[in-house]
Amino acid sequence: MKRSFIKSLSVTQRLTFSFAIVILIGTLLLSMPFTHYQNGPETVYLDHFFNVVSMVCVTGLSVVPVAEVYNGIGQTITMMLMQIGGLGLVTLIAMSTFALKRKMRLSDQTLLQSALNRGDSKDLKHYLFFAYKVTFGLEAIAALVIMTDFIPRFGWKNGIFNSIFLAISAFCNAGFDNLGNSSLKDFVLNPTLNLIVTFLIISGGLGFAVWVDLGLAVKKFFFERPHCYGATFRKLSNQSRLVIQTTTVILVLGTFLSWFLEKDNSKTIANYNLFQQFMVSFFQTVTMRTAGFATISYNDTLAPTNILYMIQMVIGGAPGGTAGGIKVTTAAITFLLFKAELSGQSEVTFRNRIIANKTIKQTMTVLIFFFAVLMTGYILLLSVEPNIAPIPLLFESISAIATVGVSMDLTPQLSTAGRLIIIVLMFVGRVGPITVLISLIQRKEKTIQYATTDILVG
């Protein structure tokens, strides 16, 4: 009965179901007394449910601080939930299947292909193994670097544990920490933490497809003769090039704009030297791409800066990784479509290649559904939270659906209804608006062709 029920689910429904199962199990575990500090703050089931959804959806919003509520066992479970949320339950099961040298059924291969956001099912095993090597390799190296700061600060036991926790959270773009209730504000001028955390956030947000592509390029560069940097990296796929170029533009432009808007704000960066100002500005730009860490208070940042941050949150990271948002590829294709329309081009192109109409339609669908869900959630929040200002609520709504996790210290103030709305936004944002939409409706392919017509717009 159980197996026939699972078989009856579509690929998108099974993906959605896998996240829901992990959330339910995680909530059950973290609501148990043995995962809590005995003298910690009083909590209810909804508090743990909210936190677990945020962990599995790698968001970072929380109604109770991890460091104050959960003990070593609870924090270990938190790390596991963030790792599962970042990689996906489907990929973990597939990894176990491959490790046991068992064959995967065709339906399971299709499910894994969808979970990894792969365009084809070619060589899924090696792709998955490489993705896991990158994940655990970067997390391990980063944890060792963080230990050089944390062990002298917290001692051997807590220093090692806290370093591993932060490394996992940063790579998975989860935004949780176990250092207190002020995120990373105590480390605002710490170069080691700023550098390694931003590196992990960017790495996780690039997407596994880009890492596989980069891995092959590096391998060719070192093991093929003659060594030619330009020729090697020119072979990167257009997907990887679009992700890397768009990410670079967003980071550089975002850092400069953030610095320019805040450089005279004495509540944020005005009292720092130029290097420190750019370091803080760069960190905020990176973390707004769905990480959720904070080294400054967003209640102190100026209104134009918060608008910039909200735009960055909406864009997010790359597909097939640990980031959320509409994705940098969606933003890039939208820009290319706009550029093509202005220049009178009949096709949308990138690097002398035509972007398929199917991709253009998917881009528009993602945009429309993302903003439809966002505005629905925002309007509902406005109606159930009449005593909270509209801008902080919009900031919170975008942070939730883009799985960012930054907040204007608003989350604990939300009512039960408000928290449930944020939970739905986080879940839709992590699973993917299109995945959720398709899992709720039955798609029917139509082969009928109709005559064309023209309609005036604009």
Automatic annotation (TrEMBL):
Pfam families: TrkH. One of its GO terms (molecular function) is monoatomic cation transmembrane transporter activity. It is found in: Cell membrane. It is a multi-pass membrane protein. The keyword Membrane applies. The keyword Transmembrane helix applies. One of its GO terms (biological process) is metal ion transport. The chain crosses the membrane at residues 15-37, 49-67, 79-100, 127-147, 159-176, 196-216, 242-261, 359-382, 420-441. Keywords: Cell membrane, Ion transport, Membrane, Transmembrane, Transmembrane helix, Transport. InterPro entries: Cat_transpt. One of its GO terms (cellular component) is plasma membrane. PANTHER family: KTR SYSTEM POTASSIUM UPTAKE PROTEIN B (PTHR32024:SF1), TRK SYSTEM POTASSIUM UPTAKE PROTEIN TRKG-RELATED (PTHR32024). This is Potassium uptake protein.
